[in-house]
From TrEMBL:
Top-level lineage group: Eukaryota
GO cellular component, one term: ribosome
Chain ranges passing through the membrane: none
Organism of origin: Bemisia tabaci (Sweetpotato whitefly)
Name under which the protein is recorded: Mitochondrial ribosomal protein L1
Organism placement in taxonomy: Eukaryota, Metazoa, Ecdysozoa, Arthropoda, Hexapoda
UniProt xrefs under PANTHER family: 54S RIBOSOMAL PROTEIN L1, MITOCHONDRIAL (PTHR36427), LARGE RIBOSOMAL SUBUNIT PROTEIN UL1M (PTHR36427:SF3)
Amino acid sequence: MALLLQNISRLSQSPRLVVSNLSPMQQRFRARKGTRERKEKKKVKKEVIKQPWMPIKKTKTKGVVVSPRVNDELLTEPPDNVWFLKDYKRPVYSFAEALGMIREVYHPTVYNQPKSLVNAYIELDLRTAKKTKFVERFTRLVGIPYPYDHGEERTVIAFCKNQEIVREANDAGAQMAGGTQLIKAIEKGQIMLPDFQFVVAHPDIIPELVSLRYLMRKNFPGLAHGTLSTDVAGLVRKCLTGVRYSSMKHEIEQDYGWVDTPLGRISMETPHLEANLIELLKDIEAKKPRRDNPFITRVMLSTPLLTEKLWIDWKKYLGETPELDSDDEDEKEAAV
């Protein structure tokens, strides 16, 4: 027992070995003054700066840029009923002939979709009197003589003072119609304007309606948009049954534009579809800028399931129309 106590006392008197995870060569010093500031500045420089939109340059595009326009003036007529499209002129059909070909494809023995839509593909020349200026994109609503089931749920709000006109607007299908009281309800937030897709108005209520211009913005009723008239009931019917279309512009060739919009159903009668096309062409021609060249260059018929577009003879549908400038229309709307 005495020997055990002696050994324990010896161990307690011997130096202890201390183990540390730190390397004896490791040294830590404070960073130089301004190091953190320099790092923060570098982070700021790395932030991506949003550049303004610039038109695409042809030199930056990959491969050969193919023009969307098809020019076959120098080509000859096809000698047979089978030919290569790139080597000969494309045939131009009448509206009835082109529609008959489309109906053959959608016949019950083929696709069996007699209620499919018929689209009009209209090419535009967007050049103006200035070489560097082109017609901007536009969206319009045109009333057609023979409406069809477009499958959309549209909502219309009408503004007018006369109670008789309010009743006519409601009978025409407006979800809401009224005058000064309706404007006050919107200002108080009791009625939300975004719930309505179309806004139409009578000219006599425009002074009171100006207080809501900041809410409506582009939907503010105007002559250029076709949403301001004394026939409010007619405007409501046009918004509910009309054709709403938008023009598109090519990214590289800024002078090339097009409109692709439905005309009706294949099951409709041929004269009815043709009448709808005439109204659409007249409405597009109203956006023609001041210049001698034609605004509409080509009209084709197409369908959602087919990639082929049939060229039709459309020039007979347009007579002499006044040359209107889109800038002048905007000025008239602003004056209202």
